[in-house]
Each structure stands twice: as structure tokens, then as C-alpha cells.
Description:
This protein is of the alpha/beta class. It has 2 domains: 3-231, 3-Layer(aba) Sandwich (Rossmann fold); 237-326, Immunoglobulin-like, CATH 2.60.40. 34% of the residues lie in helices and 21% in strands. The strands form 3 sheets. It has a 5-stranded parallel beta sheet with strand order 2-3-1-4-5, sandwiched between helices. α3 (57-65) packs antiparallel against α4. 35% of the residues are buried.
Amino acid sequence: MPYSARRMLINMQDDSPIFFIHIPKTAGTSFRKGLEQALGNDALCYDYAEDAAETSYLVRQHLYRQQDPFRFSQAFEASGARVIAGHVPANKYIDLIGARRTLTFLRDPIQRVVSEYWHFVRHQGWRDSLEAFYRKPRFINRQSKMLQGVPLEALGFIGLTERYAQSLEQLNRCFGLTVENLALNSAPDKQAPIYELHSQQLEEVRRLNRQDIALYDQALQLFEQREAMCRKGLPYAHGAIQQAGLKRVSGWGWWAGGSDEPLTVRVTRNNQPVGEARATLLRPVLLRWGLPRSGYVGFHLEYQAQPGDVVRCEVADTGQRLGQVTVQAAAS
Length: 332
């Protein structure tokens, strides 16, 4: 392993706060109860809507009544709480906590939709059909909507409901936590029910939730990639290509674990080396994510390419792929 990669074998095991985006019906209840068990009830601050019993006083007072995020941030810090969690979109608290300390779980979109339907039947008095439920706009692409505005590659951790135990192992390792595998809020007599739909229902749910399906596929790839890096004993990096054209490629990236050492990105075109670039450029539009290196995490490299060329970026120290793009013709 290169020397610089060995230096990156650190984790995020500190007392910095964590933001947990609890997407409904993704094992989030089990996870937050596990957090309570591991950290203590006082360590968690909840936001499950103004009238929800679970919502913490600090959230209700400063955000819903006074609508003063600054006062909330002061009160949250003074409280000593370590986690903000709730059915809230990523953009609500990512400015306060930062993307590196933000985590969530995703679930197969079809299974998640049907699971939420049965939850509404059992607990919310839903009496209409499954079709009426999954056609409502609020239940379509639910996962994508909650994570809108923040790319998956930037989030500190993404777990998978279908691989919950493995996700917990990965998360505990990354954040220095000891969250146990609890099974709560599941359907009666089943820990992980598999819902089956008629072919027409399945086709319609897939069509309506195409964004969530693409998001889940991406999350699965990132999850597998992180596991592979761990098995090799190599550090993980967050990063993505922003643009790859005929003359240059640009993107961003940083080491997981809070290191301020910049990534070195290797660029290839049609599997042939083009050059390397260090991720040391300012990305102002990403600053609200609470990036390492004060936002100096961007890279770009100039080259000559043709339409149809495949440009790939990877971490030079470890070989981890950050993305690949097929170059398109310049707009006329």
C-alpha cells in the first residue's frame, strides 16, 4: 500500500454530531433505537414534524415556533446532543452537521413503497387500495426527494435495509459507534417481509419510481465499493466527476475520515492514462455541505478527447473508481 494511503487509514470516531436522515420504512426505527441504546436518550435530538410526539423541544421551539435555525444550532450545541434524526430532507440540517457526518439507509424502492402502504393501513387508518396509495405524489420517489440536492457520493454513510447487519458493521466501523442490530417496527410475525405484486402493479410502481430505482442502484454500487476497499485494508474516498468534455474533466473528492490530505486523481481515456490531478481547487457551490479542506476539494485536468471516448477517474493511491463518463459531442 502506498505511504499516503496508509496515512489515510483513520476513521470518524470522534464526538462530532451526526445527522441521520430517517427515510420511512428503511429500518430507521430500529437504527434510531439502536442509537438510543448505544449513546443514551439524551444524546439524540428528533425532528418528526411539529406535532409529532417524538420531536424534541429544541426543534419544536426554535425551528417550528420561532423559525430561527441559528438559535437552534446554538441550543443544540449547548445541549450536548450528538445526533439529529428524523423524517426530514437532507437539506434541512446538512448545513449544520455537514455531509461527512450525514448518514441514511435506503431500501429497494418497490419493497419500501408496499411496506409503507401496509404501515399506513395498520397505523394511519388507510382504507383505500394499494394502487391509490402508490399513485399519490407524496409517496412517489420518496427516497430521492428526501436526499435531493446532495449527491450520494458526498454522504458520510449509506446503509441498505436488505443488508442491515452488514450495514451496521460498516457504519460502526466508520463512526466508532456500537449500534446493535435491533428489529423493531416490522410487520407482525415477520422480520423482513418480501412483498409480491401483480405484474401490472409492479410495472406501474417501477415506472412511477424510476428515480428511486436509479438511486438505489447507485447506493448499492457505493456500498459494494466501500466494502471492497475495507476488505483490501484500503481507505475509502468520497468523490465524483462533475463534467467530462472534449477538452477537460472536472470533479471533486476527499478522504473519508476527516483527513485534510488531498486526493490525487488518476484520469484515463479509453483505458489509457491521461494524467493525474490533485483535488485542491475550491468548489464554492459545495461549501454548505461542510467539506474538508474548507472546500478546496476540486480537481480538473485538460486533455484532447473525441465524442464516444470513455473518461474514467480513480484515486491514484488505491485504484478506487470515482466515476466514468462517455464524452458527448459539443453542442452546436
